[in-house]
UniProtKB/TrEMBL annotation:
The keyword tRNA-binding does not apply. It comes from the Bacteria. Homodimer. GO terms for biological process: L-leucine biosynthetic process. This is 3-isopropylmalate dehydrogenase. One of its GO terms (molecular function) is NAD binding. The gene is leuB.
């Protein structure tokens, strides 16, 4: 099993290091190959997604990704910005189905900014379409406004669009995922205003007829943003477009206490996947050894489960993470009175130790 490891920028290297330690202790036949990505790749090779990195990613069974981005690249032309690396990987590998589970661990119920009773036992899955929508729609650009009140003025524009097959395939992914969990899908749209999302709603409804055992609801995105903080446990699987999914998944992440806990996986039609923490490169804390590596470690577990067909190994990682939380170990983002504050490395090594301890016991 070939894994392309792309640590990237900011805290990316620190957190990926810990996930790699965890993968290595599992005794699986994994071939890990590292490559440059993001701003550091731009510095070294003049491009955030160098040819060699893309080639390695394409040939791998799965990709373990850290994070990309730093303010110092904000002034670069868009095509050279670090974010283009992750967008390029998603597009080039056809990684259209993005899974962002938001699970509130029992031990972290009090780390959420919401009342504990609202989030205790929370387990929702956001499925975000990842290769379409306004993120990739053409045309886009800057021009002189051709019409309207401000005709002749400078303007910028993007295009929101979805084709039927794009909506159908993500809808199938959502219904199938729901079948394995709470059997409920909430499709989030803005059908009251946008043509694209009226179409989205119509197509999801059609696909839903093939899944009579799964309950389908539709919700406008503004209401969904509200319901997520009002009664988050009323959701099971949420399926939505690229843009809305970007926003709602950050919101859902915070329900769980810290975005530092949330893994994610992006799959294509052949189950090849890219796995990354839901959070970004956090340049403000990079290099300080304080970042939470658990989202990346849990992403490695997702990788084993979804792309490498190693569900038992994934279980071992997930139960080790629960162990270290039960031991009271906390990185700064999830620390609270009465728990022990640890750094990135100590947290990673504690997960490794929890896995080894269980292995020797059994
Ligand atoms: C995410 C990130 C990316 C996105 C950025 C880094 C391009 O916010 O994965 O949610 O907008 O998709
Ligand atoms: Mg985002």
């Amino acid at each position: 099993m070939k894994i392309a490891v792309l640590p990237g920028d900011g805290i990316g290297t620190e957190i990926v290091d810990e996930a790699v330690k965890v993968l290595k202790v599992l005794d699986l036949k994994l071939e890990l190959e590292f490559a440059d990505v993001g701003g550091m790749a731009y510095d070294k090779h003049g491009h955030p997604l160098p040819e060699a990195t893309l080639k390695l990613a394409k040939a791998a069974d799965a990709i373990l990704f850290g994070a990309v981005g730093d303010w110092k690249y904000d002034k670069l032309e868009r095509q050279f910005r670090p974010e283009q690396a992750i967008l390029g990987l998603r597009k080039n590998l056809g990684l259209f189905a993005n899974f962002r589970p938001a699970i509130c661990y029992e031990q972290l119920t009090h780390a959420s900014s919401l009342k504990p009773e609202l989030v205790a036992g929370l387990d929702i899955l956001i499925i975000r379409e990842l290769t379409g929508d306004i993120y990739f729609g053409q045309p886009r650009g800057r021009r002189t406004s051709p019409d309207g009140t401000f005709a002749g003025a400078e303007e910028a524009f993007d295009t929101m669009r979805y084709t039927r097959p794009e909506i159908e395939r993500i809808a199938h992914v959502a219904f199938q995922a729901a079948r394995k969990r709470g059997k409920k899908v909430t499709s989030v749209d803005k059908a009251n205003v946008l043509e694209t999302f009226q179409f989205w709603k119509d197509v999801v409804t059609e696909v839903g007829q093939q899944y009579p055992d799964v309950k389908l609801d539709h919700m406008y995105v503004d209401n969904a943003a509200m319901q997520l903080v009002k009664s988050p446990k009323s959701f099971d699987v949420v399926v939505t477009g690229n843009m809305f999914g970007d926003i709602l998944s950050d919101e859902a992440a915070m329900l769980t206490g810290s975005i530092g806990m949330l893994p994610s996986g992006s799959m294509n039609a052949s189950n090849q996947g890219l796995y990354e923490p839901s959070h970004g490169s956090a340049p403000d804390i990079a290099g300080k050894g304080v970042a939470n590596p658990l989202a990346t470690i849990l992403s490695a577990a997702m990788m084993l489960r979804f792309s490498l067909n190693q569900p038992q190994a994934a279980d071992r990682i997930e139960s080790a993470v629960k162990d270290v939380l039960s031991q009271g170990l906390r990185t700064a983002d999830i620390w609270s009175e009465g728990t022990r504050k640890v750094g990135t490395r100590e947290m990673g090594e504690a997960v490794v130790a929890a896995i080894t301890k269980k292995t020797t016991k059994s």
